Every structure is written in C-alpha cells, then in structure tokens.
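Thread title: Can someone regenerate the structure for this chain?

I was given the following input by a collaborator and told the matching structure tokens would be attached. They weren't. Posting the sequence so someone can regenerate them.
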Amino acid sequence: MTRTILIGAPVDSGQRRPGCLMGPAAYRVAGLAREIASEAHQVEDRGDLHHGPLPEVTCANPAVDQMRETVAWTQVLKAAVHQALQDGGFPIIMGGDHSLALGTVAGAAAWAEEAGRPLFLLWLDAHSDFHTPLTTTSGNLHGTPLAYINGREGFEGFPPFPRPVPAERICMFGIRSVDPAEQAAMQERDIQINDMRVIDERGIVAPLRDFLERVSAADGMLHVSLDVDFLDPSIAPAVGTTVPGGTTFREAHLVMELLHESGLVTSLDLVELNPYLDDRGMTTRLMVDLVGSLMGKKVFDRPTRAK
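Best answer:
Regenerated them for you:
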C-alpha cells in the first residue's frame, strides 16, 4: 500500500493561455482520489498550494513573462514536494502548467540528496523544455524546467537547484517538438532522447525498460513528469500546445503499467491540463485512468463506459 499525497498546483504563470489553473479542480471532480483508493492505496489530499509574496527578481530577456510569479511558485512547490517525500508519501502534483516542474523536481532532488540516493527523471512530453530564461524567444517559462533541472546557466533569480540532475539520469520520452537552440544545447549533453521516431522503430517497451534498469541498478528515486501533450491530441485535446503524432491510448497505458511493475516511481507531475479546452472531460478522465494504471490497475479491469 502506498501513501499517496495529492498536491494541487494551480499554476498558470508559465504560459499565456489561461486555464491550467483549473487543473487541480478538474482532477478532483474526475475522481482521481477515488481511482487511487480503488487500488487499495491511502490517499491524502493536501489541497491547493498558494504562492507567497512575489520576489523582486528581473530577467535580462525582455520577452520573459511572469517571472516573479514563476519563481514564487518554484519556492512553494519545492517545499511542498520535499515535505511530502520527507513524510514518507508519494506526492502527485496536480497542475498547472509545466513550469511547476521547476519546483517539484527541485523538491524531489533535495530529498534525494538528503536520502543519499540519485534522482532520475522521466520526461513524458512532446516538448524538450530545454530553454533557459535567457534563450527563450516566446518568453513562456513552461519551456525551461528541464534546463533548470539539468543545471544550465541563465536562471538567476530562481532558487539554486539542490543538485542538478546529470544528463545520463534524464530520459525524454515522446519528444516531437524541439527548437533549434534547444536541440543544439541537448546535443552537448548525454540526455537519453526517445523521440517518436525511436518509439516507432523500437516500440515503447525496449527504450523504457533500458532506462528503468539503470534506475534500478543505481537504487535511484524516479520522478515522472507527465504532460498532457505526451498523448496524441485526438485522445487528449485539453492542452494549449497540441502536437500531432503523440502516443496512443494503449501506448500511454503501457508506459504506466511498466512504471507500476518497476516499483521505482517516487513522485509524479500531472501537467498542462487545460479543462477549458477539453471535450466533455475526455482528457481529464484519460489522465485519471493513466494514474490508475500507474497505481496498479490493468486495462482489462476497466468496465466499458456507456456512450
């Protein structure tokens, strides 16, 4: 039995299309806690976080949007995830746009350092999010967390990352939209990039198992960051940055089932859900179902829903 701790992160500062702040409420309405409890796990909902006073920070890049809000969210999320892990829980952060990972992974990294274990990161996303505040042209900070986590320069004003996660402990999975500047920066590092071509050629299982075997061999902690746009927009339209060619229903569930069987996942982000863009809640329900698979539910356990 896992002690699951739900943390609401109504973060909308990492991009300019409003709606992600409704994500935590949507997950609750769709029965996320009930889905987890149905697999005999404990569930504690710690409610929604609220950031404190906005820090006095600036950025040399005039394109950057809502940096003060994002830094404030980073601080509170880092503390909340660290506390949940310290309490022996399995934190699930209900977002919120992907800038929240600036704080959630920082909190996981701080706890991993205290526990004397290496932190690994599985990035389930259409985008690499490897810009820094100084390189982004859009100014949207939801495109920067992986660079912060990996220790790239350019994050002046943000809390120092506890211990950057080295490239060999990061696995990008489902990538299919990368800016040239991000690509150049990633090619300088040994990050495992499993884009959709790799998945088409090797399938879902082989590259994911390779990564999980490395996590297991190192006795690592594994943080999983699941972006809605990891999924194909035909089955998950409720995201502001849709990219065609994403994972199918069955592929996504297989990823979650493999993660469950590994027993390695120690914390989870659910990010970029924008309920305002959803079609009768289909994306939210799918994300809840995927968490169910991560917690142990098999597809053949699911009753067929009435149309």
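The longest helix spans residues 67-86.
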